[in-house]
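re: ur question from earlier - yeah i can do the single chain one, its not a big deal. heres the input i used so u can compare w yours
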Amino acid sequence: MGNSLARVVIILVTIALAATSLFVPVSAIAAQTSAGSYQPKFSGDPARSDSEAAALAYMRVVIRAQRRFEKQYGHFATSLAELVHSGSFTKRMVNPDRGDYIASFEGKKDSFVLTMTPKQLDAQHRSFYAEDDGKIHADEEKPADAKSPVVK
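and the output i got, formated as tokens:
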């Protein structure tokens, strides 16, 4: 009888260890996946990464500042420096190095083009393009332009 009890204990311990080893890697993988996944900043957020969210936020600030500038002066700003203090655009935002992205701005009194080019183009770092119509376009394979799909 003692021999049978020992076998039952060994079998139960083996099953417990096997079950533990099956579930630990799955939970570890789930933790890694959720830690590396992008968390949307708001409902309908089109960004695929924190870097994209920052690039899109920068573009929205520039577009809003241009609209405000145009309303105040009757024309668009021709440089990012002109936009300082227009809306929430600050002096620090004139710097085109925006972390994982480089901003490019071409302004005329009747139009402007703003692009955000990632330092590394991939599915999590798309390129972005906007004109004075305020629509932001994105492309994950090449620099975005007016023909690229509009970001929803």
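The longest strand covers residues 101-108. not sure if urs matches, ping me
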